[in-house]
Amino acid sequence: MNGFLPEEFVKKERGRVFEPDATFARRVVARMRPVSRPAGLLWDYVPSFARPMVAASTIMFLVLLSYRVLSPMPSPYSDVGIVDAYLGIDAVSAEEWMYRYAEPPEGEDLLIEISMAEVLQ
Amino acid sequence: MELDSELIVRAKRGETEAQEELVSKLAPMVFRLGSRFFRSREDVEDLAQEAFSRFFLKIDQVRPNDNVAGWVSRLTVNVCYDRLRKLQRERLGMDRYRAEPVFSGGRPHFDAYEDVRAAVDSLDAKLRVPLLLKEVEELSVKEISTIMGISQSNVKIRLFRARKKLAVVLEGRRQPEVQRDAGEGSRS
């Protein structure tokens, strides 16, 4: 009696062992090849001692980039579209307000200015 | 089992020949361990394949002086443990739909090996694995704790529970046999 289990059982169990066949090793290695990591990734070329520094600087770069992209910034370009900008070149000073999307001048001055512009043309 | 550190370095480099040689050297041990927990050759071969796949995925972490055989045996037992738990869950699901056994009227046969085997198979995976490693593979409590990744006291508790549970199951199986033999003896 080895221990708790009956000796007959233990003997039979020890005798019941499957052996790998001759081609097992080759099959294992052949089946593994597709799951092995693809070589040539950029990360693989970074030496292991430099990896923490590279990772930290990459994260910092991405944080800065996302800040620049996501934070509201005044646009350097005009709000005027391409058609308005083209037509606006020939506009007289009295008509400029139409191309700048500004509020029209108030009162009688507006009518006078527009009629003056038509007379001049 | 001592393995050539040069062989491990070459296998880590991805040399197919070295990897095959490493598998050839470790496969008998993996198969022997697998045979403890599974009864068909296909199951054992399947789990050996998975154990080696896990090993080669982590081979970068192996240092040439590490106990590689110990590493692989640990992986193998983990694979066995995972599969036994999965089988157990499936069996529990199937038991809900299994028909009740019909009594045929014949004398039930008590087979020492088959009954012990069935009783061991009925144990929970977390009790069965340490029991078979201790009783059949004759591993020490310390070795089992290393292989299973649990404390030595936990191994002892599991062994105690496994033996207690097994004793109850085997007693239940032997009881009708003993009663019938006693009945036949008094008649003759």
What does this structure look like?
- The complex is a heterodimer of chains A (121) and B (188).
- Chain A is rod-shaped, with a radius of gyration of 41 Å.
- Chain A has seven helices and no strands.
- Chain A has 121 residues and is mainly α.
- The mean pLDDT of chain A is 76.
- Chain B has 188 residues and is mainly α.
- Helix content of chain B is 75%, strand content 0%.
- Chain B contains eight helices and no strands.
- The N and C termini of chain B lie far apart (59 Å).
- Residues 100-109 of chain B have low confidence and may be disordered.
- The interface between A and B is medium-sized, with 26 and 38 residues.
Instruction: Enumerate the spans of chain B where pLDDT stays under 50 for 5 or more consecutive residues.
Output: 100-109
Beta-strand fraction estimate of chain B: under 5%
- Which value, in Å, is the CA radius of gyration of chain A? 41 Å
Query: What global shape of chain B is seen?
Result: elongated
How confident overall, as mean pLDDT of chain A? 76
Structural class of chain B: mainly alpha
Residues in helix, % of chain B: over 70%
- Based on secondary structure, the structural category of chain A is mainly alpha
Shape of chain A: rod-shaped
Sheet having the most strands of chain B: none
Number of strands of chain B: 0
Residue-averaged pLDDT of chain B: 81
Tally the helices of chain B: what do you get?
A: 8
H-E string of chain A: HHHHHHH
* Low-pLDDT windows of residues of chain A: none
Please tally the β strands of chain A and state the result: 0
H-E order of chain B: HHHHHHHH
Q: Treating each run of at least 4 consecutive H or I residues as one helix, how many helices of chain A?
A: 7
Q: Classify the oligomer.
A: heterodimer
